[in-house]
Every structure is written in structure tokens, then in C-alpha cells.
Amino acid sequence: MKTQLSKDALIGKLVDVVYDYGYDGTTLSVISEATGLGKASLYHHFPGGKEEMAAAVLAHSDRWGEARIGALLAGGLPAEQKLRGLFQALEEVHTRSHQLTLMNVFTYGAARQVFGAQVRSRVRAGLEVMAGLLHACGIPSPTAEARALDAYIQIEGAMVLARTLDDLEVFRAVVRRLPDALLAPPSGLTIDQLAARR
Q: CATH code at 5?
């Protein structure tokens, strides 16, 4: 009996496969095994093949980000709560030690030429959002920008190390300590002075 999957269910399975194997490692054979669909059925849903499947995964990520992060940022919470919410969302989306990050998947190998510009744009936007929230919390702009960049580096590095050690707690520990580190008063400012800048 052939597997029957809705398009949404199929994309959900593709998300897991792509974030486990990366773009280059995601072959049609791997997808077929994960979904229970033959190559003809996969091409029926995605005539553009693997590239179209990966684009659907990236679009799925965009929809999740808009629903979860976009709603958080558009809400009326104070900037500090929004910043902490960003890190909670990271924990929600990274649930397996062997899971790759968006940058791992879409900016290496063959994916870089197809998706690199789109992902660079997203990462730059994310850096601006994080720096903006930190600035709204009283962190001076140059420091906020530097801290946002450092946070991205630590997050990506933590995911690589979690994958290497097969230990998701490595990632979780970094994500849980980062908000306090990001919000710490810059050198020369006290907590009261920082609060007064908000």
C-alpha cells in the first residue's frame, strides 16, 4: 500500500530530512525512505526536484518565523521580554542534537549558490532585530551590534558542538545564558544607569 501524505505533512517530513542531512546530503533516496514516497510521487509534488523541495523547507521556516517571531516582535511586550522570547523560540526549533542550523543547511555546498543571498538577508535582518532590542534595553548601539553578532556566533558554534558531541544540552546551556550576558551593563555603566536609559 502506497503512503498518502498531504503536501503540508510531506513538507514537515522534508524539514526533518533537510535539517538532519543538509542540502547536499539530502538525496532523493533519503527523502523517499523518510516519506515512503517513490521518486515519481516526489516529482509530482515537486516538479523542480530537490531544489524546489529545499525552497519549500525554507518557506516553511519563514512561515514559522513569521508566526512565532513576527508575532512576538509585533506584540506589546517590553524589549527585554521580546529578547528573551527570541531565545525561547530557538529552543523550540532546535530539538535534536544532530540538527543542523539554517546557515548550515543553506549556505554550504551547492545550496550556497541557490539560497545563499536569501539566507544572508535573513541573518542580517535577525542581527538588526537583536541589536535593536538590545539598544531598546539601554545598550549603546555599537555595543548592541557587537553583542548581537557575538550571540549569533555562539549560537551557531553551540549547534555545531552539540552535533559533534551528540549532546543537545551544550546548545541549551548557551541559549539559556546568552540573554543575561547580552543584557549585562557595558563597562562603565551600572544596572541602575542602564535601566534609566530604557
A: 1.10.10.60
